[in-house]
Amino acid sequence: MTEETNKACMFCNRTENEIPLVQVDFKSMRYWICPQHIPVLIHDPQKLTGILPDAENMEAG
């Protein structure tokens, strides 16, 4: 999880100073993702394995 003061995309690590970020709350944790990588979260969440808990078990939408 990224700290509030250090918001960065969970996939590419770009910060809120570089690109807009969208907050994702999952399993009582807060994550951030940039608009470019929202499709990964929706269509290929397994690519977030090791970044997002249980991503390997998520089904694509």
**Number of DSSP-assigned strands:** 2
Low-confidence stretches: none
Q: How do the strands line up in the largest sheet?
A: 1-2
Major sheet? 2 strands, antiparallel
Structure summarized in a few sentences:
The protein is mainly beta and 61 residues long.
SSE diagram, text form:
Elements (H helix, E strand, L loop, with lengths): L21 E5 L2 E5 L4 H6 L18
Antiparallel strand pairs: 1-2
Describe the structure.
The protein has about 60 residues and is mostly beta strands. The protein has one domain. Helices cover about 10% and strands about 15% of the residues. The chain contains 1 helix and 2 strands. A two-stranded antiparallel ribbon has the order 1-2. A hairpin with a 2-residue loop joins strand 1 and strand 2. The chain is globular and about 30 Å long.
Can you tag this structure with a few keywords?
single chain; 61 residues; mainly beta; two-stranded antiparallel sheet; 1 helix; 10% helix
